[in-house]
Amino acid sequence: MINRADLLSAHQIIKGLIHNTPVLTAASINAILEMDLYFKCENLQKVGAFKIRGATHAVFTLSQTEMKFGVATHSSGNHAAALALAARWKKIPAEVVMPISSPRVKVEAVRGYGANITFCEPNQEARESTLNKILEKTGATFIHPYNNEKIIAGQSTAALEMLEKIPNLEYLITPVGGGGLLSGTLLACQYFYPHVRVIGAEPQGADDAFRSLQQNRIIPSISPKTIADGLLTSLGSLTFPIIQQYVDKIITVKETSIIQAMRMVWERMKIIIEPSSAVPMAAVLENRDFFQGKRIGIILSGGNVDLGKLPFNSGD
Amino acid sequence: MINRADLLSAHQIIKGLIHNTPVLTAASINAILEMDLYFKCENLQKVGAFKIRGATHAVFTLSQTEMKFGVATHSSGNHAAALALAARWKKIPAEVVMPISSPRVKVEAVRGYGANITFCEPNQEARESTLNKILEKTGATFIHPYNNEKIIAGQSTAALEMLEKIPNLEYLITPVGGGGLLSGTLLACQYFYPHVRVIGAEPQGADDAFRSLQQNRIIPSISPKTIADGLLTSLGSLTFPIIQQYVDKIITVKETSIIQAMRMVWERMKIIIEPSSAVPMAAVLENRDFFQGKRIGIILSGGNVDLGKLPFNSGD
């Protein structure tokens, strides 16, 4: 059970290491949509994503004994880079299992932070068996990307920082993949800003959170298909109950809305967000009538995209 | 003659209308280049460029009579959008002459702010003759994009804000096109932060400022060729003497360096800058030995790019 003190302690531990990222507004977007939007820019965070919050919290709360043996995880993306950097800050070893299909830029980022990489076949079974061998061999502590209380408490700090600056939000929307950011945000609001209604936004092509809530049990994400490559994972045993208890609702969005939202933020705010980050904005675009006249916070979760493979066509 | 009080007055007049944009740093870029870089993010400014500073100052200091007849300008880009928005704030008409070759995103911005657009052939003569006809017909006041004291004083405020936050810079680098931003920055430093050495950065393919300083007279920019579409213009009779008197030096850069610098800022800082904005960073990349160990400010002048026409190749 993660309590109020856990969230405050997480922020104390990590705040000197991470950026208190800016909250930006865009007058032109507000004028077009007739609402007040506030964007917490975790794309401008270290490693380009909120993931450094949870990873730093998890690494910096290890026992002295655990530290000796280092940390390990499997991830094709931002959590791997975040764990690698947090481990480097603490000068402890980091082992990362990455699918051989991982983008070269992400592999290079993880390697650049000094982690030891082991490649595996691109499926869940291979990830887990490869990781298990490493855990046996090294004695490292497995830091799950989201199903971990330290990670959830760490991710809650983005909402804490945002609401300290803009306390009177009516809604706060985050993307939902494994649910680490959403469950952390839910706890932050529940404990400190209970007037804020928290919404999870999810691609239609990876709507396991939406279906899990409908059926009151974790529905795994089977062959998800979406451009939002950070949202392919399924909810976990720790994140699902928090979401189930506190979330206002889950909104699912179309792929075309994600690209439209991403382009709108790039063009009008001049900041780079990855497709997963655009999913809450897509939810707003698909539900303009509902959100009109409201004060809405959005957590822009990350900005790691391959600039050579953008979904914007010439002449659009 | 623009004096200290003019700069302070400009800031007083515009500061409630514009953003005091953030100054960002990038740990990974500093680590790679072994220097301390500070980026004043005018790409996050209203209209996506510093130009709103000068335009707002010019519009808000018009006489009541001048206001009646509105304002006019010729510009391929950001100044046009800025003047259009400032005029809309004051509820006065704005006429803009734009070359038919202007980037789509910039034309749409100008139109969105409610200015009346007249297109012309993409050369200086056509710009001026088209504008003159409009001035005769409307009686509007011509607000030159840079050769105007109100504009120069307005552009100085980006450096004033930046140095208020980070006073101990050793160098401050701006791009140079017509010289409005550079001359304003030079005056800001000369009057308030004389220890800061100000450098202008310019594409080799549009090196009229470099040649003008060498030959002690304004050398017009003839058929400039560069991806930095905001830097095609020649120095003016007001900007050249300021630059001549106070600038530390002009550094010219290759096109490949501009694209490399632009990509580095996009990838590592997750912010969108237009090619003209990348020219100071390109100057740093081409002169790493010179800048190593120094504290360097860079004014990122704008972020208006066509997302459908980016200079990044797949697989780079």
Descriptive tags:
homodimer, 316 residues, alpha/beta, Rossmann fold, 6-stranded mixed β-sheet, 4-stranded parallel β-sheet, 14 helices, 15% strand
* Helix fraction bin of chain A: 40-55%
Q: In the CATH classification, which architecture of the largest domain in chain A applies?
A: 3-Layer(aba) Sandwich
Number of domains of chain A: 2
Kindly identify the CATH topology of the largest domain in chain A: Rossmann fold
Number of alpha- plus pi-helical segments of chain A: 14
Morphology call of chain A: globular
- Assign the structural class of chain A, choosing from mainly alpha, mainly beta, alpha/beta, alpha+beta, or little secondary structure: alpha/beta
Encode the helix/strand succession of chain A as letters: HEHEHHEHEHEHEHEHEHHEHHHE
Strand order of the largest sheet of chain A: 1-2-10-7-8-9
Q: In CATH, what is the class of the largest domain in chain A? A: Alpha Beta
Strand content of chain A: 15-25%
Q: What is the rounded distance between the termini of chain A?
A: 49 Å
Oligomer: homodimer
Task: Please mark out the parts of chain A with pLDDT under 50 across 5 or more consecutive residues, or reply none.
Answer: none
